[in-house]
Amino acid sequence: MSARDISDLVVPRSGQSIWLITLSAAAMGFLAVFALALSVTSANLARGWSASLAQTATVRISAAAGELDAQTAIVLDVLRTTPGIAEARVMVAEDQAALLEAWLGPDLPLDALPLPRLIELYETEEGPDRQGLRLRLSAEAPGAVYDDHTRWRRPLAQAAARMRGFAVFSLVLIGAVTAAIIALAASASLASNGQVIKVLRLVGAKDRFIARAFVRRITRRAALGASTGTLVACAALLSMPELEGTAHLLAGIGFQGAGWLLPLVIPALVVALSWMASMATAFHVLRGVT
Amino acid sequence: MIAFEDVSHDYGGGPLFRDVTLRLEQGSFHFLTGPSGAGKSTILKLCYGELQPSSGKVSVMGRALAEMTRDQLAETRQRIGVVHQDCQFLDHLSVAQNVGLPLTTTGRDLTETDLSDLLGWVGLGGHANAFPPTLSGGERQRAALARAVIVAPTLLLADEPTGNLDWDMSQRLLMLMVELNRMGTAIVIATHDLNLIRFAKAHVNARVLRFSGRKLQIAGAEL
């Protein structure tokens, strides 16, 4: 009969506080996975939006019908000779129809609409001198307007960063609430096992031994609860219906590839929090026992 | 081994005893006797630090209990075997696990042979896997004695250890304590059983401390 075997048994297995720990750890593990997924997704979206918008720009040409082709040719020439522009192409009618379809529906009579001509351009990593480009365009093709998407990109990036901040704050809140619940449950467990503590002290057990016996029991239950909650949350994320497109949040919430290993951190964090919270509570309670 | 210097103890309603000064040496054998409520159990509890005196100083193994840290108190208790009047078991553990508890708390393993010998020694050989609530009063007291001696204590404190035992079993357990005393363990037994004290004095050089009024005195030859 090893000492470790018996020391694992000195705290009774029954007790409502132990079930409370399992249940709350499961709930917190579940919520933490969603907060983590939201954090990862919003970070990915922000990165994706910024990257895709950062290296593209549009030149819009508004001119009389007779001058439109000439201005287009001038703009293309300017763009071809501007350092930092990798590619420039005139958007054909089908491209413009696709852009407007979301608002105006299919089968648009584009010919009947006074639409500007659009030139889509892709920048090199260094990018062009934007101010210089704007000046050249206004001088050589007065109807051309260069739009580098800054006014779209900035609020999108800000919104995604703020969403990520909320998700991280949620994770911190979940951790704090988990620690508080486990500390309360540990305190209740110690209070309801006053006789166990008294007997252990009388036979010469040090506080460290008694605290460890309780902390082991509490931490194991917290690990069980958090693992279960994490698994259920991962299954829930996997069961999300696939949505077309990746530019909006609902389509991308979850993890990608090796990112699915990230939720494994949650049970480990809950175990660490449980250990610290229950150990601190145990020593606090034991100080009141002779 | 144990030293009381002008120790007094109050229990809310008034003084239980006053100005007790005594010194119990290593390897000694003492009985504490007196009427119920005189303070026999309190003296024992003061010896292992479950209670603190209202005034005065209690030292165990050369160190004042009041000055010990919690870990030092635990280490001192690891060298003291105590048979509590109410036994103090963990009811969800088996008899064997309860008896092995003092070793467990210090990380020492318990061999089946040692445990079997010890339980056989107190007449509980067939009860190793039983749980305390299923034991009779006498069996619980014998199990409590086994737990008290498993660490080979230098001091054994026993509070009415034969209170629930028949005379034969009482003599048998007392002789076990006499054997321990011969091996060097200091023994203090609180009892009101004068027959037990007389029986012990025939086998060991035991001193008797008797409560009289609120004082603790050495009893004379009338016992």
Automatic annotation (TrEMBL), chain A:
Keywords: Cell cycle, Cell division, Membrane, Transmembrane, Transmembrane helix. GO terms for cellular component: cell division site; membrane. One of its GO terms (biological process) is cell division. The chain crosses the membrane at residues 20-40, 166-191, 260-286. It comes from the Bacteria. InterPro entries: FtsX. This is Cell division transport system permease protein. It comes from Roseinatronobacter thiooxidans.
From TrEMBL, chain B:
Keywords: ATP-binding, Cell cycle, Cell division, Nucleotide-binding. It comes from the Bacteria. It holds the Pfam family ABC_tran. This is Cell division transport system ATP-binding protein. GO terms for biological process: cell division. One of its GO terms (molecular function) is transmembrane transporter activity. GO terms for cellular component: plasma membrane. InterPro entries: AAA+_ATPase, ABC_transporter-like_ATP-bd, ABC_transporter-like_CS, ABC_transpr_LolD-like, P-loop_NTPase. The keyword DNA-binding does not apply. Residues 2-223 form the ABC transporter domain.
